[in-house]
């Protein structure tokens, strides 16, 4: 009985991983790469195993092809000091038709890797369980 549950969970996480992978591929296909700069940091409290951890999410400013400036907050946070972020130059991907849709070029695949890994883990338990 548990085998079927693990296989169902594996299928769901695989489908979610595939969805985010395809969505990311489509975004990258049309995106333009430019340079940006971290101008601020947003602090968020995250609880992990009943322990409060501060994560820092950079706010990046960049210019599009015609010189309009945009800002966005990265979805990729780190537990390092915020001093390591401000002033840092980063590569940015943005949609030329909608420059507000932007993301860091590096490190935006974590959720995809996590979902595919979880899918394999649940499949393994479904097969051996």
Give a written overview of the molecule.
- The protein has 129 residues and is of the alpha+beta class.
- The protein has one domain (2-128).
- Helix content is 37%, strand content 38%.
- The protein is built from 2 helices and 5 strands; from the N terminus they run αβββββα.
- It has helices at residues 2-30, 110-128; strands at residues 32-48, 51-63, 69-73, 89-95, 98-104.
- A 5-stranded antiparallel β-sheet has the order 3-2-1-4-5, with helices on one face.
- Helix 1 packs antiparallel against helix 2 (110-128).
- The chain is flat, with a radius of gyration of 18 Å.
- The mean pLDDT is 87.
- Pfam families: DUF3592.
Spatially, the strands of the biggest sheet line up as: 3-2-1-4-5
Distance between the termini: 9 Å
The coarse overall form would be flat
What's the pLDDT, averaged over the residues?
A: 87
Order of secondary-structure elements: HEEEEEH
Beta-strand proportion: 35-45%
* Class of secondary structure makeup: alpha+beta
The radius of gyration over CA amounts to 18 Å
Q: Helix share of residues?
A: 25-40%
Protein name: DUF3592 domain-containing protein
Transmembrane segments: 6-22, 110-128
Keywords: Membrane, Transmembrane, Transmembrane helix
Pfam family, one: DUF3592
Topology, pairings included?
Blueprint: H1 2-30, E1 32-48, E2 51-63, E3 69-73, E4 89-95, E5 98-104, H2 110-128
Antiparallel strand pairs: 1-2, 1-4, 2-3, 4-5
Helix pairs in contact: 1-2
Brief synopsis:
Pfam families: DUF3592. This protein has 129 residues and is of the alpha+beta class.
């Amino acid at each position: 009985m548990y085998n079927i549950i693990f296989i169902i969970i594996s299928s769901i996480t695989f489908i979610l991983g595939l969805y985010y992978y395809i969505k990311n591929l489509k975004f990258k296909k049309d995106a333009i790469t430019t340079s940006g700069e971290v101008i601020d940091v947003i602090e968020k409290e995250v609880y992990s195993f009943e322990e409060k951890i501060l994560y820092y999410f950079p706010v990046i400013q960049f210019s599009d092809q015609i010189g309009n400036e945009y800002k966005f907050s990265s979805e990729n946070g780190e537990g390092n000091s915020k001093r390591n972020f401000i002033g840092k130059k980063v590569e940015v991907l943005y949609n030329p038709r909608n420059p507000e849709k932007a993301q860091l070029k590096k490190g935006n695949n974590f959720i995809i890797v996590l979902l595919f890994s979880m899918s394999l883990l649940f499949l393994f338990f479904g097969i051996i369980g």
